[in-house]
């Protein structure tokens, strides 16, 4: 909490990329790594569009076991290739403690997904890795439960935790989840950890990404995690929420205007 540490923790995730500092950091890329060609084109698009971090899931925790589950090891190798080519640090999800060592070789940030926010063995092992950990808020987690989950990582001596608000379950069906914008100032008041926002998984719709992202920036978030695809209609995972490359570049420009204004 801020009682323990009054200043915001800054997390360095690659050469010159700092989350929680004065800069606003945008991580972007495909929801799932699908092929070498797909990741190459999306990585080029997000690097050109202003992303500082490349996102991409090699392991996909899908609601249905019949949906595409990710390229796994092959996906990790493709992420490494794009990290080498673009110079962008990589954030990717890890689902099991046994995979942490392997995923850590391909990633600069370990993502703990919403469905695993309270998977304590996973949190402990991620903490022991020493890598920055991006901790998504659970689908129905209170802010207190989310912050206590972060403590599992911190207790392993790993101070590099980035919180990610990604929407919570509500009674409202018109969006996939309800983005809890108020969690940003609430968490920032009580916690020293940086907070970023995922406007893609919260709304579940591409047309909502821009307004939610701009609102998150205005509300004080330290960055964003955004789904981008160069051909959203062919995406094998969460196609409805992916921005196209031009939409992403336009969003980054609009973010600059909002951040300047606040
Ligand atoms: C993701 O970011 O790829 C993802 C699955 O998100 P969440 O855990 O928030 O559903």
From TrEMBL:
DAHP synthetase I/KDSA domain residues: 12-253
Keywords for this protein: Transferase
GO biological process, one term: aromatic amino acid family biosynthetic process
Coiled coil: none
Record bears the keyword Transferase: yes
One GO MF term: aldehyde-lyase activity
Protein name: Phospho-2-dehydro-3-deoxyheptonate aldolase
Organism of origin: Embleya hyalina
Covered range of the whole protein: 74 to 335 of 351
């Amino acid at each position: 909490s801020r009682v323990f540490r009054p200043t915001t923790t800054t997390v360095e995730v690659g050469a010159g990329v700092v989350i929680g500092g004065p800069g606003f950091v945008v991580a972007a890329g495909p929801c799932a790594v699908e092929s070498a060609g797909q990741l190459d084109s999306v990585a080029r698009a997000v690097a050109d569009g202003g992303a500082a971090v490349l996102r991409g899931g090699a392991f996909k925790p899908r609601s249905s076991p019949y949906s595409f589950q990710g390229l796994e090891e092959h996906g990790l190798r493709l992420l490494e290739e794009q990290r080498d080519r673009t110079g962008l640090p990589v954030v990717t999800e890890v689902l099991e403690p046994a995979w942490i060592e392997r995923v850590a070789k391909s990633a600069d940030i370990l993502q703990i997904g919403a469905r695993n926010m309270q998977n304590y063995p996973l949190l402990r092992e991620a903490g022991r890795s020493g890598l920055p950990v991006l901790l998504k808020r659970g689908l129905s987690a209170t802010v207190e439960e989310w912050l206590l989950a972060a403590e599992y990582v911190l207790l392993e001596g790993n101070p590099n935790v980035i919180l990610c608000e990604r929407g919570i379950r509500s009674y409202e069906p018109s969006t996939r989840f309800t983005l809890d914008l108020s969690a940003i100032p609430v968490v920032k008041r009580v916690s020293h950890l940086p907070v970023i926002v995922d406007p893609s998984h919260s709304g579940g719709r591409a047309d909502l990404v821009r307004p939610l992202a701009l609102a998150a920036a205005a509300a004080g978030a330290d960055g964003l995690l955004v789904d981008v695809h160069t051909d959203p209609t062919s995406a094998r995972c969460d196609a409805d929420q992916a921005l196209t490359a031009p939409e992403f570049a336009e969003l980054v420009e609009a973010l600059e205007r909002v951040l300047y204004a606040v």
